[in-house]
Amino acid sequence: MGTIGERIKGKRKELKLTLKDINKLTGISTGNMSDLENDKYAPSVANLLLISKALSVSIDWLVTGKEYQISEHVVQPTTQTASGDSISPADLELLAKFHQLTEKEQVKIEGMIMGILMAREDIRQTSVTQKSSSSMNTERREEGAAKSESA
User: Fold this and answer.
1) Which of 30, 43, 87, 107 is most buried, with most CB under 10 Å away?
2) What pTM, to 2 d.p., does this model score?
3) In this structure, how many other beta carbons lie within 10 angstroms of the beta carbon of residue 22?
4) Bridge partners, residue 87, by sequence
5) With contact defined as beta carbons under 8 Å apart, do 7 and 50 qualify?
6) What sequence ranges are listed for the domain HTH cro/C1-type (predicted)?
7) 88 with 78: CB under 8 angstroms?
């Protein structure tokens, strides 16, 4: 099995899965899966992740036909974005799931995330305000005590 498509198709058939089965497991249409299996185009990273999970194989094997042994001392690979942020395999999996949602569902999720982040920021600001207020009260008490002692 020399190509990605050949490996996907071979493993799918080995597992006795149909294109419809893969569709149910991954959300990738049967037409797109057929195109991938026939090497009409290469799968996206997100689709590679979904396919690898559905077929219980590594992405390494899908792409190269080889399994790589990972030493426990090796840091898990990450992908770097243009801004320098790291994207872990778990991040990619979450992104792949996000892309399976409808646009309306994606907007809802984005709203939920913004709500959580805003609530977190409100908690931080409240905490900072309380700390500032507490330290100001302590300073006032110390100033008052110093004035009482000098009087």
Assistant:
1) 43
2) 0.46
3) 25
4) 79
5) no
6) 8-62
7) yes
